Amino acid sequence: MSDKDDTDVGLATKTKPKTEKPKMYKVMLLNDDYTPMEFVVFVLERYFGIGSEQAQSLMMQVHQKGLAVVGVFSHDVAETKVMQVMDLAHKHQHPLQCTMEKE
Ligand code: TYC
């Protein structure tokens, strides 16, 4: 009997990893011509925990480039942030758009 014959007895052992890496989602703010800059800065501070200086420069990035990623979160958290931002923008009648997309 060759070595090959007596070693080839194992079951297939390739198993799916038990903990799947969660898919992450980018949350983005889009520029528009009407939402006040201070409102966008407030949103970044309040809902994304960004410090005031960084919030100011991120707002300017959106203003100049059209959009920016403001955070990366799990699906549920990203969805909640988008809802909170859109809700507040609506309440203040600002056309600010916040969207999410798979990373
Ligand atoms: N462009 C707006 C203005 O000039 C400011 C603004 C910045 C609006 C970022 C939306 O996501 C935004 N008032």
Task: Please state the CA-atom Rg, rounded to the nearest Å.
Answer: 23 Å
Runs with pLDDT <50, length 5+?
Answer: 1-6
Q: From N to C, what is the helix and strand string?
A: HEHHEHE
Largest sheet: 3 strands, antiparallel
* Portion in beta strands: 15-25%
In helices, the fraction of residues equals: 40-55%
Global shape: elongated
* N-C termini distance: 53 Å
The whole-number mean of residue pLDDT values reads: 91
Folded structure, characterized:
The protein has 103 residues and is of the alpha+beta class. The chain contains 4 helices and 3 strands, in the order H-E-H-H-E-H-E. The protein has a 3-stranded antiparallel β-sheet with strand order 2-1-3. Helix 2 (37-48) crosses helix 3 (52-65). The radius of gyration is 23 Å and the shape is elongated. The relative contact order is 0.24. Residues 1-6 have low confidence and may be disordered. Bound molecules: L-tyrosinamide. The site of L-tyrosinamide has 13 residues, from strand 1, helix 2 and helix 3.
Throw out a few tags for this protein.
103 residues; alpha+beta; three-stranded antiparallel β-sheet; 4 helices; 3 strands; 47% helix; 20% strand; disordered N terminus; binds L-tyrosinamide
What's the arrangement of secondary structure elements?
Blueprint: H1 3-7, E1 24-30, H2 37-48, H3 52-65, E2 67-74, H4 75-91, E3 97-102
Antiparallel strand pairs: 1-2, 1-3
Helix pairs in contact: 2-3
Bound molecules: L-tyrosinamide.
Quick structural overview:
With 103 residues, this protein is an alpha+beta fold.
